[in-house]
Amino acid sequence: MTDASPLPAQQRAVLLPRFGGPEVLEIARRPWPQPVDDEVLVRVSAASVNPVDLNTRRGAFPMVTAEMLPIVLGRDLAGTIELVGTRAHDMLSHGDRVFAHIGFDRGAQAEYVVVKAVELVAMPNGLNFVEAAAVPLAAITAWQGLFDQGGLTAGQRVLIHGAAGGVGHLAVQIAKARGATVLATASAGDLAFVRGLGADVAIDYKGQPFEELVGEVDLVLGLVGGDTQTRSVAVVKPGGMLVSTVDLSDETTAAAKTRGVRVPGRWHAEPNAAQLGEIADLISAGKIRPVVAETFPLDQVKAAHERQGRGQVRGKIVLTVD
Ligand SMILES: NC(=O)c1ccc[n+]([C@@H]2O[C@H](COP(=O)([O-])OP(=O)(O)OC[C@H]3O[C@@H](n4cnc5c(N)ncnc54)[C@H](OP(=O)(O)O)[C@@H]3O)[C@@H](O)[C@H]2O)c1
């Protein structure tokens, strides 16, 4: 380990001691973790709130069971490298500004977080810490959904449901940057926002059935489930794909089989620094930009969960840590 500097004996972190409503969340004092090998210790400036945090808190995220509690919440962050593990210091230095999507074995909503070198990249030009923290999990989900799962290529038509939300607002911009025609659904009040992100067509999901407006598409990126998911099968070309970030219903799977639409099974976005680097390049080039709807100090994480849970969030909610 290198670059030791005075650190507090303890740090604050968002702890989930048991499943329940926002009231179960605690701001706990914990020892700061020690980076080893290819890890670094990041002093976190901002960490985003994602729907997975709310699902985890409720006990509705299958990868976190009651026996695993207590855990620190949070999957992505932006901050400054404080300490560098012995095998990481060729590439990374004390003071580097980085952002990261971290594995399920750690939580990002803390003052200090150990991050593996393969999970982080340098922050893109032109973003502050709050904006940078809004990016990693949502943008990597969009990237893996559009390209790894969905095989989207330039010139294809993609329908993105939930286009004004955390994943959707980045998916619209990434798909456009890669030369796709983007059709998008959102609430009526978000249609101008979604068009401003680059969507070629924006549809009020409560106002008119999207099937009447989109024609055939090569890919649906579904960020909502239920009836919307099942109805989406009918607008995908036979041989095309429906990629969902939420579980597929039996109805959707059956309809897809009948129509010859390919549907990947359950998948979770995985940390991937190479992809995050490509996303950072698009941000630095001015091709995509995260939108932060609201910020909350770390100590007000309960209010942040309540806000995220009410919906109608344009872009992302971010916790500020210092
Ligand atoms: N598998 C994975 O690895 C992975 C990764 C990230 C996220 N996810 C999941 O993906 C989903 C989306 O995540 P997110 O961060 O983008 O959530 P989000 O920020 O809450 O965005 C969801 C968006 O969907 C809109 N919406 C709701 N019902 C709709 C409908 N019937 N048609 C069209 N749009 C609708 C909402 O608009 P209004 O609020 O205006 O109604 C909101 O803008 C969540 O369920 C999350 O858990 C999965």
Descriptors for this entry?
322 residues; Quinone Oxidoreductase, Chain A, domain 1; Rossmann fold; 7-stranded mixed β-sheet; 5-stranded parallel β-sheet; 28% strand; binds NADP nicotinamide-adenine-dinucleotide phosphate
What would you note in describing this structure?
The protein is α/β, with parallel strands linked by helices and 322 residues long. It has 2 domains: 10-135 and 290-320, Medium-chain alcohol dehydrogenases, catalytic domain (Quinone Oxidoreductase, Chain A, domain 1, Alpha-Beta Complex), CATH 3.90.180.10; 138-259, Rossmann fold, CATH 3.40.50. It contains 10 helices and 15 strands. Helix 7 links the parallel strand 12 and strand 13. It is globular. The protein starts with 9 loop residues before the first strand and ends with a strand. It binds NADP nicotinamide-adenine-dinucleotide phosphate. Residues 50-52, 55, 138, 141, 161-162, 164-168, 185-187, 190, 205, 223-224, 228, 245-246, 267-269, 311-313 line the site of NADP nicotinamide-adenine-dinucleotide phosphate.
Q: Which small compounds were modeled alongside the protein? A: NADP nicotinamide-adenine-dinucleotide phosphate
Biggest β-sheet, characterized? Answer: 7 strands, mixed
- Strand % is 25-35%
Mean residue pLDDT: 95
**N-to-C span:** 24 Å
